[in-house]
Specification:
By secondary structure, the chain is of the alpha+beta class. The chain is built from 4 helices and 4 strands; from the N terminus they run E-E-H-H-E-H-E-H. It starts with 8 loop residues before the first strand and ends with a helix.
């Protein structure tokens, strides 16, 4: 069962903010076969004055893509527990 989110959900299928559980579920299915609107999502996030992000998981591919799309945004990696803790500290400032 999907519940109403406590934080904003930006989905790459429509590059929009969704809070309706039914629409979020529909969009998750669409994401299986639709193009990713990465640049639009990053620009939406930047437009909301969010300047720091955390890339969850190994590697730094998304961090690099963010830097190319919006050079002033900062994206921290989280390859391991220590880097995740540090990233959380950085974005909380």
């Amino acid at each position: 069962n999907f519940k109403e989110p406590k934080i904003a959900v930006i989905q790459n299928v429509d590059a929009g903010v969704n809070d309706d559980p039914v629409q979020i579920k529909r969009n998750l299915v669409k994401q299986l076969y639709s193009p990713v609107r990465w640049v639009d999502c990053v620009k939406l996030i930047n437009g909301k004055k969010i300047k720091k992000m955390i890339e969850c998981g190994p590697g730094k591919i998304l961090s690099g893509l963010i830097r190319r799309t919006e050079p002033k945004m900062i994206c921290y990696g989280s390859d391991n527990t220590a880097s995740l803790v540090k990233a959380i500290e950085e974005v909380s400032v």
